[in-house]
């Protein structure tokens, strides 16, 4: 396979439809075992239906955000764990940990979110699932 330059790859993406790009991202995530979720908290719009609808929605929630509330005393261990979970570089992971509270992972399955929470708490961090 011929190696593509970054510019050639970007040109190829520009020619794709949003649906094709979405399918590409899903396949990329599956192939390399990564997530394309940005480590930034995003506020969701409230559901139309009032508080009763919100309570039902919370009971059926299947996607969670893993939010780092505080790094604790063992910041280096937390940075290592963030790097393992997000595939960020050392500098980016350090900045993310130091800017807590921040979302580490967004819209992940419940079991993946719980595993990430356990790993981060094991490293000394304070973590919540939203």
TrEMBL record:
Identify the SUPFAM superfamilies for this entry.
Answer: ClpS-like, Ribosomal protein L7/12, oligomerisation (N-terminal) domain
Q: Name one GO molecular function term.
A: mRNA binding
Give the record's GO CC terms: cytosolic large ribosomal subunit
Q: Which residues form a coiled coil?
A: none
Pfam families attached here? Ribosomal_L12, Ribosomal_L12_N
Instruction: Outline the extent of the Large ribosomal subunit protein bL12 C-terminal domain.
Output: 64-130
- What region holds the Large ribosomal subunit protein bL12 oligomerization domain? 5-52
Q: Which InterPro entries match?
A: Ribosomal_bL12 (IPR000206), Ribosomal_bL12_C (IPR013823), Ribosomal_bL12_C/ClpS-like (IPR014719), Ribosomal_bL12_oligo (IPR008932), Ribosomal_bL12_oligo_N_sf (IPR036235)
Assigned keywords, A-Z? Ribonucleoprotein, Ribosomal protein
Q: Name one GO biological process term.
A: translation
User: Of which family is this protein a member?
Assistant: Belongs to the bacterial ribosomal protein bL12 family.
Quote the function comment for this protein: Forms part of the ribosomal stalk which helps the ribosome interact with GTP-bound translation factors. Is thus essential for accurate translation.
Q: Which NCBIfam families match?
A: L12 (TIGR00855)
Q: Oligomeric state and partners? A: Homodimer. Part of the ribosomal stalk of the 50S ribosomal subunit. Forms a multimeric L10(L12)X complex, where L10 forms an elongated spine to which 2 to 4 L12 dimers bind in a sequential fashion. Binds GTP-bound translation factors.
Q: How is this protein named in the record?
A: Large ribosomal subunit protein bL12
Which taxonomic lineage is given here? Bacteria, Bacillati, Actinomycetota, Actinomycetes, Propionibacteriales
């Amino acid at each position: 396979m011929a190696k593509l330059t970054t510019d050639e790859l970007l040109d190829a993406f520009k020619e794709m439809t949003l649906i094709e790009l979405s399918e590409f991202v899903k396949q990329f995530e599956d192939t390399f075992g990564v997530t394309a979720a940005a480590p930034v908290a995003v506020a969701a719009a409230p559901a139309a239906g009032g508080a009763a609808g919100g309570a039902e929605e919370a009971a059926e929630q299947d996607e969670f955000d893993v939010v780092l509330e505080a790094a604790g005393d063992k910041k280096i261990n937390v940075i290592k764990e963030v790097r393992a979970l997000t595939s960020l570089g050392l500098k980016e992971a350090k900045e993310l940990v130091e800017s807590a509270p921040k979302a580490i992972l967004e819209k992940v399955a419940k079991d993946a979110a719980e595993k990430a929470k356990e790993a981060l708490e094991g490293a000394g961090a304070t973590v919540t699932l939203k």
